[in-house]
Amino acid sequence: MNEIFKKPLYPYRRSTDQDGIYQAHHPVVIIGAGPVGLCAAIDLAQRGIKILVIDENDKVSFGSRAICFAKRTLEICDRLGISDKLIAKGVQWNLGKVFFDDRQVYEFNLLSEDAHRQPAFINLQQYYLEVYLVERILELQNAGAKIDIRGETSLSEINQTSKSVQLGLDTPDGLYEITADWVIACDGANSPTRAMLGLDFAGRVFEDNFLIADVRMEADFPTERWFWFDPPFNKGKSALLHKQPDGVWRIDLQLGWNIDKKEEKKPKNVIPRLKAMLGEDVNFELEWVSIYTFECRRMEDFLHGRIIFAGDSAHQVSPFGARGANSGIQDVDNLCWKLAEVVCKRAPASLLQTYNIERVLGADENILNSTRSTEFITPKSGISRLFRDAVLELAENQTFARPLVNSGRLSLPIQYGVNRTFGPDNLDGPKVASPGSPCPDAIIAPETFLLESLSQGFTLLNINQVPKVHIIECGSTLTHLNVKASPDENTFLLKRYLGDQKMAIYLIRPDQHIAARWAKFDETAIRNSIRTSLGYNG
Amino acid sequence: MTRLNLDPNIKNADGFYARLLAAHEGLSKADSDSLNARLILILANHIGDLATLEEAISIAER
Ligand SMILES: Cc1cc2nc3c(=O)[nH]c(=O)nc-3n(C[C@H](O)[C@H](O)[C@H](O)COP(=O)(O)OP(=O)(O)OC[C@H]3O[C@@H](n4cnc5c(N)ncnc54)[C@H](O)[C@@H]3O)c2cc1C
To answer: Is a pLDDT exceeding 60 seen at residue A237?
Structure first.
């Protein structure tokens, strides 16, 4: 077994909270140190908030699970200080091949966009992401950040009043209790927090099973994503082969509904299946095997009083399209600055409602996309299969049919659009940079990217104009970023932010989303938009 | 605004109809179904416009 699965990252140590006379109180407690909980801890700690993270375990998640991390996730991870590590270790690929029956029907190339610091996506085992996040937490701790991460500490009870949350924690030394102002439940798809509160988690189960295996092999398969519909080695079903670092390959094999999961998971049954796929003479070693039934579901609300749900605890999607961890990290991106503003009393608690609204929209979009991919990959009726196969047959010779082939869609961030918290849009500018969109990256000066130049708080991006007014609104200082855009200097900034306009002002939220934009600097309007973003005008 | 042309539009109606049936001649039910599916996809792509397609689907559903 891979050593990484055995190594305790944050071993249990008795905390002073267990010996105090009074119950210890924490401003923010995060339940679960999966990718989402760890990202939330870092984001909040970077904003100066004291954080306690608890996890029933003290190691990385067993097996690899998530492998595809999309550009927006990498951009967020850059803000959190780990994207360089992810990219150095991750595998970058852009060629995908689609096979139907015994032949290749087409291939596609997902090139990264020009003038973006981060690639379109990388493949990396989830456990590396978790290790790097824990390393980042240690780095922040050494720099004085107040993050406490407690292993082998599981939530056993949770209750709340309008004023605080009471938590019962179980450890090798027995139970203790603490209180908190806010709790973020990042405790995964089976969320004990959700269960203890008796909350809903409605959705849909796909009546199918998938064998997911990570194998180590020295094979000369290229660094590409191969997807098979109805291949000879898995008749009537689908298969996927995808590369990860360290010579590890991810294999997904559809097994069907009526199977004996326990039996299928045994190496004596798994190995022949893999050999049929990879070739009899390929030597491989099984790193991890599991069998999944996929589900798409979400909680109706992600915000329950002082308890906030994020990641898989709030929503679950089938893995086609790689949206689970990617969307959970976008939850964190959306939530943490808001929670920090609320904790620091610079915004009303009602601001958190916008997290609920925005991320429910995000979850719905992900569920929609995953459901559509699942329908295409595993058609649920005769007619669905008929059309699916017709698309695949046509795709071989007709380019028009290729966009209809859906073997999983790349996870893209949601565009929230102008609504209660985003706007106004007072610039006749490009759509990619309209309010509610995540800022598209661009080069703003030699070797300087836009996203890395944004501040932790609100930024005013001033293009081809230099307002001299210093703005502090509701305790938040607005950072000015003055840039010049011209056709010969930075065409992408021009293309993405100006279009036909000569100048522009963009108000950018702490989560790098565009709050509002104008043609000209207008202090009153800007102040008002900051207040709207902070939930004062709702 | 209606975009879908629902006026008689095929010059040689009988000829088209015969060609459509000829394409299915001798095919099994499964192969005929596949042919129809491919044909729908090809024609839908030619139309392209979602609103027009939506209109066509709802007329077919009636
Ligand atoms: C086969 C497969 C492939 C996938 N591929 C992708 C992909 O390519 N891209 C992608 O983005 N996503 C992918 N996903 C989804 C991704 O793995 C999840 O979305 C992600 O792990 C969710 O992170 P999380 O932090 O919300 O929850 P988890 O990772 O489940 O973490 C929850 C944490 O809570 C802890 N916990 C649970 N109960 C308690 C308790 N009572 N007290 C304290 N702690 C507790 C657990 O120990 C765990 O550490 C895939 C998933 C699977 C299964």
So the answer is: yes
Cβ-count burial A433-469 (b if 16+ within 10 Å, e if not): bbbbbbbbbbbbeeeebbbeebeebbbbbbbbeebee
Structural domains of chain A in order of their starting residue, each with its CATH number: 3-91+119-202+297-367 (3.50.50.60), 425-533 (3.40.30.120)
DSSP state of A399: G
In a domain, B41, yes or no: yes
Q: Residue with the nearest Cα to atom 1 of ligand 1?
A: A65
Model pLDDT for residues A114-157, shown as the tens digit of each residue: 889 999 989 999 999 999 999 999 999 999 999 999 999 999 99
Atom from ligand 1 closest to the CA of residue A310: 26
Does residue A538 register a pLDDT over 80? Answer: no
B interface with A, Cβ–Cβ < 8 A, is: 33-34, 37-38, 40-42, 45
Output the CA torsion A414→A415→A420→A422 (10° steps): 120
Q: What angle do CA A335, A493, A498 make, to 5 degrees?
A: 95
Mean pLDDT score of chain A, rounded to an integer? 94
**Is residue A465 predicted with pLDDT exceeding 70?**
yes
Comparing A184-198, A210-224, A428-442, B43-57, the range with the smallest average pLDDT is A210-224
Nearest-Cα distance to chain A for B30, in Å, is 9
Q: How close does chain A come to B17, measured CA to CA in Å?
A: 22
Whether residue B3 is contained in a domain is answered as no
Query: Which residue's C-alpha comes closest to atom 27 of ligand 1?
Result: A188
DSSP A265-318: TSHHHHHHHHHHHH-TT--EEEEEEEEE--EEEE-S-SEETTEEE-GGGTEE--
Question: Cβ of A393 and B45 within 8 Å?
Answer: no
**Spacing, Cα A186 to ligand 1 middle (Å):** 9
Residue B56: give the domain boundaries: 28-62
Q: Confirm whether B32 is domain-assigned.
A: yes
Tell me, yes or no, whether B55 lies in a domain.
yes
Angstroms from B5 CA to nearest CA on chain A: 23
Segment A447-469 mean pLDDT:
96
Looking at beta carbons, which residues of chain A come within 8 Å of B45? 400-401
A404 at the B interface (CB within 8 A)? yes
| Cβ neighbours of B37 in A, within 8 Å | 386-387, 389-390
Report ipTM for this prediction: 0.96
Give me the number of domains chain B comprises.
Answer: 1
